[in-house]
Specification:
Blueprint: H1 11-14, E1 19-21, E2 24-26, E3 30-36, E4 41-48, H2 51-68, H3 73-89, H4 91-102, H5 106-127, E5 134-136, E6 143-151, E7 154-158, H6 164-178, E8 181-185, H7 192-204, E9 211-213, H8 218-226, E10 232-236, H9 239-250, E11 255-259, E12 265-268, H10 274-286, E13 298-302, H11 303-319, H12 338-353, E14 357-360, E15 379-382, H13 389-392, E16 399-405, H14 408-415, E17 420-421, E18 425-427, H15 431-440, E19 447-448, E20 463-464, E21 467-468, E22 481-489
Parallel strand pairs: 7-8, 7-10, 8-9, 10-11, 12-13, 12-18, 13-16, 15-16, 18-19
Antiparallel strand pairs: 1-2, 3-4, 5-6, 6-22, 11-21, 14-15, 17-20
The structure holds nicotinamide-adenine-dinucleotide.
Nicotinamide-adenine-dinucleotide binds next to helix 8 and helix 9.
Length: 503
């Protein structure tokens, strides 16, 4: 297999990379190499923030909050829409940066990462003018009470590398719409699109300090979470990191939302359209190289069709064309890093030692012309049991575990029998059965006869060790708002001195 990786010239990648703090581009003393996973070659040097720069970013966001929260919603909307317009005008460049920094195929970057980010900014621009309060009934004559909703303050957004820009947008959109200001720390493994976005933020005319970016690894993230100026932490990443962040946030009693890992069941009944189910199982696990929180990594197939479905998915997996995301023929790119590939491969080896059979893939792959890339064959494991580590833990790679089942009770015990509760899929011709099963799945999302659908207006989030708090939709605004009860005495200008207290 050969693939081309002729890198188009992108001016931004030729310039020195800088943080964005208080409306200024800030050069740092130290840098962090960002690799192209398709080649293993350094793409750029990202600016590494020190504690001083983290502090400057939070202080700037805190100062900016004083004005941003009272900026007319229509004005905030216009800025978000302007940012969306600028991004749309540069969408091909952004998709290319995402492909180079993350490794994903171009079509994926264009249709999912960048297209959804643009829609999301527009959607939350629309919400700025629709965040209302509530008139509250009370039992005290002459008293009028109202609950206002107000922004919580400075948000720390800490994001992963699998959808670099989109994960930032999931937090940026609702935070700004609610009237919060933000300090973003994207993943150190794929920070470039976020840094490029700051050039558009600057051009759009956001007031200094409203949006800030610092780059670094766990230490920079932790110092942001600890900072007393931060009121809310919006985190997406691994479950273990989420728990660590929650512990760090306890002292400051910060609001935390956690979008964490998954081990989602994709369930196929014998009466399903098997062609559609096979395509859903295939896309459910191999999309984004399996590096998706919602990856349908456990395929539960009703016993009579388990062999046929495994064969169908394995046959498709064997045909996948691996290569550079820049190559239009590429269906699947490399994994994010050499370490991550080794970790994913370790799960495959271990499952085999425990009795799993490899129906497709199972090896590291070499793509001609891209010998330094972190490629892994798309892998289908048959003969899996639900108690194996590879069926219980999030692998976050292109590895599918196929597990047959016989009764609905057995299926539900297996499907819910993991720590995670993020997403799930059901394939059947019987809608009543699908809805009955959907009621009993412990997951934040259930897709019926489809898999992996997202829309800006439909909330998404997990349960159990997949975290809490929703992103997307109206619900995503809630964590960025708190309410204030306001009392007005309508009867007299003379203070009542607490006569109304009924306790
Ligand atoms: P990760 O937890 O390693 O890192 C995520 C972010 O947290 C990075 O920016 C990292 O630098 C930072 N970080 C690491 N340790 C920290 C600490 N102690 N304090 C503060 N910040 C810290 O996750 P990852 O490998 O980048 O991303 C993959 C994970 O993200 C997978 O588990 C995946 O399921 C999950 N994910 C979940 C969703 C969702 O919506 N539920 C979406 C995408 C990805």
């Amino acid at each position: 297999m050969a693939s081309t990786d002729t890198q188009p010239r992108i001016d931004f990648l030729e310039e020195p990379m800088r943080l964005y703090i208080d409306g200024a581009f800030v050069q740092t003393d130290e840098g962090l190499p960002s690799l192209n996973p398709a080649t293993g070659v350094q793409l750029a040097e990202a600016p590494l923030a020190s504690a001083r720069e983290v502090d400057a970013a939070v202080v700037a966001a805190d100062r900016a909050f004083g004005e941003w929260r009272f900026t007319p919603p229509t004005q905030r909307a216009k800025l978000l829409w302007r940012l969306a317009d600028l991004l749309e005008a540069a969408k091909d460049e952004f998709a290319t940066i995402e492909v180079l920094d993350n490794g994903k195929p171009m079509w994926e970057a264009q249709l999912v990462d960048i297209a959804l980010t643009i829609e999301l900014l527009r959607y939350y621009g629309g919400w700025t003018t629709k965040i209302d309060g509530k008139v509250l009934p009370n039992s005290i004559p002459g008293m009028f009470t109202v609950a206002k909703r107000e922004p919580v303050g400075v948000v720390a957004a800490i994001t992963p590398w699998n959808f670099p820009l989109l994960e930032v947008a999931y937090k940026l959109g609702p935070a700004l719409a609610a009237g919060c200001t933000i300090v973003i720390k994207p993943s150190e493994l794929a920070p470039l699109s976020t840094l490029r976005l700051m050039q558009l933020v600057d051009e759009a005319g956001f007031p200094p300090g409203v949006i800030n970016v610092v780059i670094g690894g766990p230490e920079v993230g932790a110092s942001l979470v600890r900072h007393p100026g931060v009121q809310k932490v919006a985190f997406t990443g691994q479950t273990a990191t989420g728990k660590e962040i929650m512990r760090t946030a306890v002292d400051g009693l910060k609001r935390v939302t956690l979008e964490l890992g998954g081990k989602s069941p994709n369930i196929v009944f014998a009466d399903a359209n098997l062609e559609a189910a096979a395509a859903g199982a295939f896309g459910g696990i191999f999309f984004n190289q399996g590096q998706a929180c919602v990856a349908g990594s456990r395929l539960f197939v009703e016993a009579p069709v388990a062999g046929e479905l495994t064969d169908r998915v394995a046959a498709q997996a064997k045909e996948i064309r691996l290569g550079s995301g820049l190559d239009p023929e590429t269906q699947m790119g490399p994994l994010i890093s050499s370490n991550h590939r080794a970790r994913v491969k370790g799960y495959v080896d271990q499952a085999q030692e425990q009795g799993a059979e490899v129906a497709a893939g199972g090896h590291e792959a070499t793509v001609a012309g891209l010998e330094g890339g972190f490629f892994l064959e798309p892998t289908v494991l048959a003969g899996m049991r639900n108690d194996m580590q590879a069926a219980q833990e999030e692998i976050f790679g292109p590895v599918l575990a196929v597990i047959p089942w016989e009764t609905e009770e057995e299926l539900l015990a297996l499907a819910n029998g993991v720590d995670y509760g993020l997403a799930s899929g059901i394939w059947t011709a019987d809608t009543s059965k699908a809805l009955r099963i959907a009621d009993r799945l412990d997951a934040g999302t259930v897709w019926i006869n489809t898999y992996g659908m997202f829309d800006v207006a439909v909330p998404f989030g997990g349960r159990k060790h997949s975290g809490f708090g929703k992103e997307l939709g109206e619900e995503a605004l809630d964590p960025y708002l708190h309410s204030k009860s306001v009392w007005v005495d309508l009867t007299s200008a003379v203070p009542t001195g607490g006569q109304g207290i009924s306790r």
